[in-house]
Write a structure and sequence with these properties.
It contains 28 helices and 4 strands. The chain is mostly helical and about 625 residues long. The strands form 2 sheets. Strands 1-2 form a two-stranded antiparallel ribbon. A two-stranded antiparallel ribbon has the order 3-4. One of its GO terms (biological process) is Ras protein signal transduction.
Length: about 625
């Protein structure tokens, strides 16, 4: 009886405090250890975790005996306390895993994050690319005193500059640099950004005592500056800004740590061209004029300062007159790219094709050749579009878009989209007999299917637009003669490119496409316009910057730039197909096309019903 009483008291001591742990027994009476997994009565998922699932609390050696294993307990502040041993009756031996991992099942995330190893381990399994821009610990997205996020209150210019020049920890940080350099002209002129970078460069050199840290920070600033000069050379077209940058490059060229970066900057400065963003962005000329007016009104400048400013102004004016008009335009095309096709207005042919010849030549071409040539033409223009070209295209007035030379690739791609849509309608409406029109319609449906498999969503949208236009869509007799299997496949393409739920099907297909692809440019351009016009640039009476607006616009541009990094292999030019597409004689008047459609098939449904009955009878 004493043995039985001793065993019962030992069991009660093991489960003191309501916690459960494994039995420390070396005998063979109970060979199966109790499960360490928590009770799932609250969660309702009886099979959510495996029998011996891995946990974040296993910081002991796997070779240590079970009787000597030690688990750290969690204090009230969320930090670990490893001083309590397994035999201590007051230590919580096993905490439910669901409460530790879930952000809603425990108060760990509400405590001090800096002292919690569990939180750091939980953050380590989070994909760095999923962290939104500017949202990380110690960044400018921290809550203010009122408990409101800075995302709704906006950001100051200095906060954005600190984020721009901060250490690159993930891919989202690299995207932030590209997005900021693309959109900052809506916020500040180039001179203000250059002054902010140079001032922080000098501040690090004066305050940082450790040589390696100082060089690392200054090198990072120079790399951001080099990226700025390389991708947006027109921002330095103003003489004052260019002269200030040249002095900085000359100053760091004598330092061995920055000599290579200084040489790359000097080479990039040779491509400085005219400022093409002055029509929509903030310019240094306006900033200098406003500063001169304010200095005149305050009367703070002395006679000595006035003479200094005048001499500097004369020097800058002289450099402007010497250099501005003789710099060649910027061209960042890669050598491996094929030359772009000519604009639609300049395409001429010595032998113009008649409408009947266009139909005959089109029917002789292979579907694969037509789809490949359409893809080659679209890629030749899409691969040359720079991110700021799209920003410029949605920001300037419509009458200035045709005159802007930097928008030639965007304009050509849009013109080509409309050209293909009208080309499809003209080819189908050319023949008077329904069976001939059905052959052309079925051929275009097959071409659309091949374009889908080549991930050329832009040409696919153009072909669908031509087939679903009013003049062609109403041709019911022609559609009835199309092969049913071909028509069903085309209906799948219509669902893919439909506007349902803001093009949900297309967006899903685009995100799941990892190979070569060309986006449906009209939709992405519309996203830029909606984000630009639907959000304010400044909040809180213009004191803070609404960066969330530019982050949304930047995500649209990031999708496009990533698609440009994967070119199509072996896109060989086919002169015959190119001539068929680009040299086609088209009628672009919608009223004329509709009248032609009515002449081919009137709105009377009697003949249509009889044709359907005959077709059903022959299919029996």
């Amino acid at each position: 009886m004493l043995t039985t009483f001793w065993n019962e008291s030992d069991k009660s001591g093991r489960f003191l405090g309501g916690q459960r742990r494994r039995a420390n027994s070396t005998t063979g009476e109970n060979p199966r250890q109790p499960s360490p997994r928590p009770s799932t009565a609250r969660s309702g998922h009886s099979r959510a975790s495996s029998e011996f699932a891995g946990t974040f609390l296993r910081d002991y050696s796997p070779t240590q005996p079970s009787s000597q294993r030690q688990r750290p307990s969690i204090g009230p502040t969320g930090s670990f306390n490893s001083s309590l041993h397994v035999g201590s009756p007051t230590s919580p031996l096993v905490t439910p895993l669901l409460d530790l991992v879930s952000p809603y099942g425990s108060d760990l995330r509400r405590g001090h994050r800096a002292d919690s190893f569990l939180d750091m381990d939980d953050d380590s399994i989070r994909d760095p690319d999923d962290v939104p821009i500017l949202e990380r610990e110690g960044s400018v997205l921290e809550d203010d005193g009122d408990g409101q996020s800075s995302r709704t209150n906006g950001f100051t210019w200095d906060e954005l500059i600190d984020r721009l020049l901060g250490e690159t920890m993930s891919r989202s940080d690299k995207d932030f640099i590209a997005i900021f350099l693309c959109f900052y002209r809506k916020i500040a002129p180039p001179s203000q950004l250059l002054d902010s970078i140079l001032s922080r460069f000098e501040k690090v050199g004066d305050t940082e005592r450790l040589v390696l840290q100082r060089i690392e920070a200054q090198t990072r600033y120079c790399q951001v500056l080099l990226q700025w000069i390389t991708h947006h050379p027109g921002d330095f077209a103003y003489p004052t800004t260019r002269h200030k940058l040249q002095n900085f490059v000359n100053g760091i060229s004598g330092n061995r740590s920055f000599a290579l970066l200084a040489r790359e900057m000097s080479q990039a400065m040779l491509r400085i061209c005219e400022d093409e963003d002055a029509c929509w962005g903030r310019t240094d000329n306006e900033a200098e004029r406003s500063s001169s007016v304010s200095s005149f009104l305050t009367g703070s400048s002395t006679s000595g300062d006035t003479s200094t400013l005048s001499s500097a102004g004369e020097e800058f004016a002289k450099s402007f007159s010497d250099n501005t008009l003789h710099v060649p335009p910027f061209d960042d095309r890669r050598p491996s790219e094929a030359p772009s096709h000519m604009s639609m207005s300049s395409v001429t042919s010595s032998l113009q094709l008649s409408t009947r010849d266009q139909y005959a030549l089109f029917m002789q071409m292979k579907d694969e050749d037509i789809a490949t040539e359409l893809t080659r033409i679209d890629w030749s223009e899409f691969s040359r579009i720079r991110p700021r070209d799209l920003v410029r295209h949605v920001s300037i007035a419509p009458d200035l878009k045709e005159k802007c030379e930097s928008l030639q690739h965007v304009n050509r791609m849009i013109s080509h989209f409309n050209h293909v849509a009208y080309w499809v309608a003209n080819i189908i409406l050319e023949r008077p007999k329904a069976k001939h029109r059905a052959r052309a319609l079925e051929k275009f449906m097959n071409v659309a299917w091949l374009l889908r498999h080549r991930n050329n969503y832009n040409a696919l949208g153009a072909v669908i637009a031509g087939i679903n236009g009013t003049a062609v869509h109403r041709l019911s007799l022609t559609r009835d003669l199309v092969n049913q299997e071909t028509h069903r496949r085309f209906m799948r393409l219509e669902l893919l490119m439909s506007t349902h739920k803001s093009h949900f099907a297309y967006r899903l297909a685009w995100e799941n496409t990892s190979q070569q692809r060309i986006p449906f440019l009209p939709l992405h351009r519309r996203d830029l316009v909606s984000a630009d016009e639907g959000n304010r640039t400044f909040v809180q009476d213009g004191d803070r910057i609404n960066w969330n607006k530019f982050q949304v616009m930047g995500e649209v541009l990031t999708v496009i730039t990533k698609a440009q990094t994967t070119p199509y292999p072996d896109l060989q030019r086919n002169p015959n197909v190119e001539r068929l597409i680009l040299d086609a004689v088209l009628n672009t008047n919608d009223d004329d096309l509709y009248e032609r459609s009515v002449q081919l098939e009137s709105s009377n449904g009697g003949q249509q019903d009889s044709t359907k009955r005959k077709r059903i009878w022959f299919q029996r």
